[in-house]
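In response to the reviewer comment on reproducibility (Comment 2.3), we provide here a single inverse folding case reported in full, input and output, so that an independent group could reproduce the run without further information from us. The structure tokens appear first.
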């Protein structure tokens, strides 16, 4: 199976293979850990159900609760620098500056968030893949693309529109 990622530049897209040519020994963000949209939905479904999946308890409820707890010391926030060409252009998109972080993901902390509930989890993958888990409303949203640079404004804005439409279709916030 050939998996491609596209890199957007000023004239269009260039493709490169996302499958490593050598065996992967380290798994890190953007470094060889692969999952499908179905894999992400399966994971989020398990977390939404406090660690249960198809009747089996995979994670303890206490572990799931810990995944939704801020792990930053009081007053500590994260900030990101913008690199040439916007490769890590995080400010103004993902993540929101008011949010907090568990050991798993970002946690919505903005009272004025227009879409997801405060306390919802969200994160992104290197190739503009985003997900949201709103346990309070029972909603999991997964959006996958396969192109760079990370946090591409067009892709991120489309994800937020998609997320909004999912909530609207379920007559929520």
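Designed residues, in position order:
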């Amino acid at each position: 199976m050939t998996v491609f990622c596209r890199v957007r530049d000023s004239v269009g897209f260039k493709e490169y293979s996302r499958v490593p040519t050598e065996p992967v020994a380290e798994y890190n963000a953007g470094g060889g850990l692969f999952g499908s949209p179905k894999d992400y939905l399966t994971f989020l479904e398990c977390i939404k159900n406090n660690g249960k999946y198809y009747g089996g308890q995979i994670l303890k409820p206490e572990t799931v609760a810990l995944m939704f707890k801020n792990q930053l010391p009081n007053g500590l926030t994260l900030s990101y620098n913008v690199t040439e060409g916007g490769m890590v252009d995080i400010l103004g998109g993902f993540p929101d500056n008011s949010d907090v972080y568990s050991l798993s993901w970002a946690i919505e902390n903005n009272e004025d968030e227009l879409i997801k509930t405060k306390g919802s989890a969200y994160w992104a993958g290197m190739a503009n893949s985003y997900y949201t888990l709103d346990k309070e409303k029972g909603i999991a949203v997964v959006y996958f693309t396969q192109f760079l640079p990370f946090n591409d404004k067009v892709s991120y804005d489309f994800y937020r529109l998609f997320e909004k439409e999912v909530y609207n279709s379920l007559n929520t916030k």
